[in-house]
Amino acid sequence: MNRTLGVTLVAATAISIGCAQIPSAGTVAAAGPVSALRFARLVNGDGAVVNDAVVVIAGERIVSVGRGDGAIPAGATVTDLRAYSAIPGMVDVHTHMTYYWDHAPGSRPFGAGNTRRTPVELATVAMENARLTLETGVTTVRDLGASNYVDVMMRDRINRGEAVGPRMFVSGYGMSKPRAPVAPMAAAGSGAGAGAGGGGRAGGAPAVPTTPAWMRGQITDIAQFDGAVKAQVDSGADVIKVYGSRGTGADTSTTQTFTYEEMKAVVDAAHKYGKRIAIHSYGAPGGRDAVRAGTNTLEHAIELDDATLALMAKQGTIYVPTIDHNRYYADFHTDYGYTDDQVRGLNQYRAKNLETARRALKAGVKLAMGSDAVHMMFGQNTRELGLYVQAGMTPLQALGAATINGAEVLGMTDRIGRVAPGYFADIVAVQGDPRSDVEAVLKGVKWVMKGGKVVVDRR
Predict the structure, then answer these.
(1) pTM, whole model, 2 decimals?
(2) DSSP secondary structure string, 258-319?
(3) 18 and 165 fall within a common domain
C-alpha cells in the first residue's frame, strides 16, 4: 500500500545566504529526471518512522516520501539502499572550517607557518575539512569565526558548485576584546579565527593594514558594536559570533570579557540587522549574562545555575555545549604541544561540560550538536552525540539535536533537518537502527546525499 508521510508545508519564501537564494519548502514540481531511493526504514529526529521507505527526488528537493513498490513513480531511476536506514543530513552548528593544518615538519596547528597562504589559497586547501565533514553525514554547518572572510569564500564556492562541501552558514570575524592594544592591521597567526576572547588566532594572510580594528571584530568600546556587526553583515556573514569569555584550545579559563551591557548591545545590533547570534562563554557568569542579553545560542558554558537554565528553557535559548572538543585537544595534545597539566585541565572541563548538559536536559533546555571542530577534528564531527546519550538523551533524541534542533538554530526548519516533501534532499544512509543505537550514526555512515547529489558512497 502506498502511504505518504504527512507533512505540513508552508508558503514558499526565500532567505539570503551569501549570493544564493534558498527558497523555503513548498510544493515541488518534478522538473527533470526523477529518482527514487529505497531504504529499510526512514527515521526522522522527531520519531517519525517509515518502514520500507521510498524517497522520491527531483533536482535538489524531495518530492514525496512513501512506502513500498507503489510509491515509486513510473520511469524513476531507483537506487536500492534497503540494507540501510535513512536519516536526515545532520547539522553541525559550531565548526571552524577554515582551521587547516598541513602537518609541515616543525609546525604546530596554531603555528605562524600557516600564514604563508593567501586567503584564496586557504579557502582551497580547507576544502579537505569540508570533505571530511560530509563523510560524517553532516550536510550543513554553522561556521563560527574566520579571518579575512575565508569562510565566505568557502561558502560561496560550495554554493556555486565549484567545490563539494556542506552547506555553510558563516560569521566572518568573531567579536572579541583584545588582550593587548590592537595593531593597525590584524595579527597573523594560524587557523582562521579571530581568537576566543581576543586570543589572536587570526589566519590566512594579514588583513588590509587600513582596516579599522573594530571591523575585524576587535572591540574596545561598546559604541563600536553596531558598526562591527554591520561590517560583518555587509561582508557576507549569515550569523554573528561573539567571544564573551576567555577559553580556547588548552586554555579552559572562564574569565568573562564582555559585560552584560556590552553583550546586550551586540545582541541588539545583530537582531537589528536581521542576524542570529552565538555567544561563546566558557564560564557560568558570562553564560548567564549572554542568556539574559538574548543570545540565540550559548556555546560551551559550564556550571550554569538553575535560574539561567530555566530562562534558557523559557525563552528558547539553544545550548551548544561542544563537550567533545576538549577530548579532541587532549587526544592530540602532542601535536599542539600541550602539557600533562593542560590535558588534566581539559579533562576536568569536559566532565563539568557533560554534567552541565545533563542538568540542562533535565531543565528542558534544547541542545544542538556542535563539534567546535578544528584541524584534525574534521571527520569526528558527530562524536558529540555519544556524549548527549551519556547526558541522558535517547539515541533518537540525539538525532533530533543533530537535525531538527540544528535546523532551528539556523532558522531553516522548513528546508533542512527532516526527510520530507519540499525539503532539500539531504539524506544519509547508515548501517543499523539509529532509534536504538547511537553508534549507527557515529560509525555507520555509508552513503550521503546533499541537495540531491551523492557526495559520499562507501557501500
Answers:
(1) 0.89
(2) S-HHHHHHHHHHHHHTT-EEEEE-SSHHHHHHHHHHT-SEEES--S--HHHHHHHHHHTPEE
(3) no
